[in-house]
Amino acid sequence: MGDPHPRQEGPADLRLVAPALAAWATAAWALDASGARVTWVVVASLLAALGAPLVQRATRARTGTRPGGARRPWGAWSAVPLAAVLLCVAAAGTSAGLRAADVRRGPVPELARQYAEATAEVRLTSDPRLTRPGVRGDHATPRAVLLNGEVTRLTRADDTVLATRTPVLVIVDLARRGATGGPGDAAEPAGRSPWLALLPSTRVRVTARLVPPLTGGERIAAVLRVRGGRPPEVVGEPSGAQRWAGRLRAGLREATEGLAPDARALLPGLVVGDTSRVTPELDDAFKRTDLAHLLAVSGGNFTILLALFIGPAGLAQRAERRGLAPRLGLPLRGTALLGGALTLGFVVVCRPDPSVLRAAVCGAVALLALATGRRRSLIPALATAVLLLVLYDPWLARSYGFLLSVLATGALLTLAPRWSAALRRRRVPPRPAEALAAAAAAQALCAPVVAVLSARVSLVAVPCNLLAEFAVAPATVLGFAALTAAPLAMPLAGMLAWWAGWPAGWIAGIARTGASLPGGAVDWPGSWTGALLLAAVTAVVVLLGRRLIGHPWLTGLCALLLVLAVVRPPPLTRVITGWPPPGWRYAMCDVGQGDATVLAAGEGTAVVVDAGPDPVLVDRCLTGLGITRIPLLVLTHFHADHVAGLSGVLRGRSVGAIETTGFEEPPDQAASVRAQAAARHIPMTRAEAGERRRTGGLDWRVLWPPPDPAPSPDGPNDASVALSVRSAGLTLLLLGDLEPLAQQALLSSPEGAALGPVDILKVAHHGSAYQDPELIRRVTPRLALISCGKDNPYGHPSPTTVTALQKEGALVLRTDRGGAIAVTGGNGRLAVARD
């Protein structure tokens, strides 16, 4: 079994790094390069590689061996590494060029260029997944099911049948459509779509419109757009292996059914990459804290299982003595064979998509490194994994996930050991030193790439990863145990899942807490120039950190300043920034193209009117205002630009009740509001004209909509809740999105007839041109507030509306120019502050 004490080894072996990087770069370039250019590069590389030994011989013959065995000149000893690089360039160019050419030719790309309709038989190669909900204007974009697959049979419009094997992306639109083909009034419930029950390797027949991919060099030849009004037509059942894997995954979902919502959503994702239960809010929290790698199957999951089986990686021949395999008396070769079987099972259960294959290959190479018993073979193992993966799947060369995996692994193998040793020399205990060094090293190398993807830099990534790290292993191991036990004994699986739910819930709590911190992330240029700038800043921070760590008091002061910058306690923020202004009465949040108004009702307390389209933006606004308690949340109507941010309002705040209009259109948004209220046990009431309320120093009455029986509104906008609010002698009129007909009806209604001049007007419908001139003349506001998004496609606010308001003497302020607005004053005195 080898010496229990590993021998001292020389410096890391870097000979495979250059060939791997050369193959990576060549594959990325060749995917959308012309065939002629790829051929030229491949041939030139091969000729140069074959010529390298000739150059070496000629150099040796010319220089000979120097006295005393001195080292030969550069040309003599660099020929072999150069030839290796050139051969890898040729291999990567050949692989990428041939694979890309296969995707670009054939009937499927041809029909896609014509935007033709066809009937196709598709063999699925991935699990179905739902798109994230979005907001377009005042409507939520319909959700769709995405499936990767391979077209095996294609029937053209002229009934010509063609056999092929072409990778495609299938998009199933879940919005129901009427006979005219326009959007209907409802959409199929996304979570109950039969398309989501399909397993990989299932063959389905679809009638779809073929469209080309958005960009060149993708791994798919076309996008198949399918209307999802009907269930899928299955023409071939999934393979036995995928049915087995599907039963295991379904068993894990059943075992986690009784867990808390976040643990119930996270555990299947952490174990097998099943993110079907992860809400958009939870997903965003993991992204904002740089914990998103825990939601996807990665080498980390597999490493934990291997460490349990063979012992901690990287300890050479001593490693196998500390895992399950040596305790069972398995020899090293048997350990490697069973580790390979574990790798195969991992791929099948977690699905053989690129991220899983990437993790499995890294694990297989780690087994090879273990068998050699050499610690210094870990970096060559990583280089080998990169080389094999880009040759097998050239599209990984353009994958950000692949880049992040390689950077993180490289950081753990190179930077982390040195940083850990430096921390231990400064009397940091070994375990905390290793954890801190690993998290900091991975963040240092990965942060520039993450900034390109998200246009922000997380300031809480390292502490969040540190706090989550110790919970990942127990959650993963117990989750896999529950996965294995589910087909045999569901009660046992449920108990194991319950135990795993505790660390999983802890991880989710860390993500949500970190994401809720107002200074947890800073905006950053989302470009490669921004990435280079961040890399330079990181290098400076590391150099300064090396000097600071020897001065405990100075280090503590810097840490305290960083904590204050991240937490941003409202009293301190108010002193430094002046926001929110003391004694503010009303505030209009900058939530993009939507509405969210805050009415102060005491220290940390406010009535909120509408939630905007973005949970993150409205949560950030309320946090900046110091709002922790909301006695009443008024949702004027159910358009997405007023209610889609509801989860951000509810996050970390107590909400007494939600009041809405009685016109529940669109139905999907109304159902979403009711579901979120029910999940948090928040009562819902219906607003009716004549209702009067008071809380703190705030008085308001409902002006619209009228009570039943009332004429049916023309749409959700005309059913908006309109409010007249008074605080400290200042009057505010909020009109929701009322349009001219409803505004005229309001003026002639019993509640609206008494309307007179107001101090502040929240202009209806983001300042659109659809305003009743008589209403503007009647209320003659001193200040007109318009909430709209910068460069919105609707031209809001309309110049005619702005001009009409200014003619009545109003000062017009808009959130797209200057951000959030706060109004202060009282008893006729009016002042404005901007965030």
TrEMBL record:
What residue ranges are annotated as transmembrane? 37-55, 76-98, 291-316, 328-349, 355-371, 378-396, 402-423, 435-455, 467-489, 496-515, 527-544, 551-567
Which residue intervals make up region (Disordered)? 688-719
Membrane topology qualifier: Multi-pass membrane protein
Signal peptide start-end: none
InterPro entries membership: ComEC_N, Competence_DNA_uptake, Metallo-B-lactamas, RibonucZ/Hydroxyglut_hydro
Entry's Pfam families? Competence, Lactamase_B
User: What are the residue boundaries of the Metallo-beta-lactamase domain, all occurrences included?
Assistant: 593-790
Question: Residue spans with biased composition (Pro residues)?
Answer: 704-714
This entry carries the following GO cellular component terms, namely: plasma membrane
Could you list this entry's UniProt keywords, alphabetically sorted: Cell membrane, Membrane, Transmembrane, Transmembrane helix
Localization annotation: Cell membrane
What is the name of the protein in this document? Membrane protein
